[in-house]
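Minutes, project check-in
Item: structure for the 352-residue chain
Input as provided by the requester:
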Amino acid sequence: MPSPPARARKFAAVMTAALLLAALPVVSAFGQSSSEDELKENKKALHETKERIRARNQRLKRNQRQMNQLATRIVRTEAQLVKALRHKDNLGQDILTLELQMLSLQAKLDQRIREAYMLGGASVLYLLTATSAAEAAARISFLDEMNRRDAVLAAKVEETGERIARARSEFARTSYAIDLGLQRLAADRKALREKMAETRKLIARLNVQVEDIQVEISRIRPFGVCPVDGPHAIGDGFGIWVKRPKNQGGNHIHQGNDIIAPMGTPIRAPFDGVAVNAANKIGGKAVKVYGEFGYVYNAHMSAYGKLGEVEKGDVVGYVGATGNTSASHDHFEWHPNNGKAVDPYDFLMLVC
């Protein structure tokens, strides 16, 4: 049975541990409350910025649809113009051929008219000089055939003239359609250029908005990017009481959030700074990244990434299960101003 001094010492140790356990959540809560108002205000600002981005994204989508429609119309108009120009060329060739035929037919008809005029009453004399009724009938048939041929020739001249008129009319309509098509093509190309210019400005503004969000997040402190690539799951386990054997670190307060991810998932520096090897028996392969607002601690890694000077987003390690753990995850802690650990969960939710 322990002596009174021993019991006193044991009682004092228990009381000291109880006081420390009671004080830890208070410290954590105090660390959070100092930035609670700022966090709420910036969350609201971020929400409004994201709403503006969504609105501009909708406008960007409308612009894209309109540009696609313009591009489709331009392609189809160009195809129609090629077809119309080919048809116009064919009509020109047809008109030239018909005009040459017309000249030949008209020349023949003019020749027959001159011959008929020169013969005049000779045709009557031609009939009267027949020596028999049979010969007279034959001469009448000959004259009838000549008249028929003259009528056919005249009809061909008239028909060819009509074909030329129709071809010229279609040529004029095709030329007008081509002019309209060229005007429409020019207008659509101009509209597409203007819409593209507007879209470029929108994209530029969207990029600025994204940069604004990143600046806003970094202003809130501390993280500009998610420390673990997706897919992942973040356990809100800061401050819970963890029971472990002494060889596994013993019972302790959990000082971070566990980010569960597949083995080998990249772990990134959440801000600019310096990454240093922080390997230890419990955390296994681990790295600390020191920056403007303190440091973060990543434990249980399977391998190291870039160490030394790093920029936000550089890979400093890979998810693993080294140290005292049986599941692949990144034990992530944040120590603002290089002091006590503070719950990083709300800040992780902004970037992960």
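Outcome recorded: The longest helix spans residues 4-119.
No further action items on this chain.
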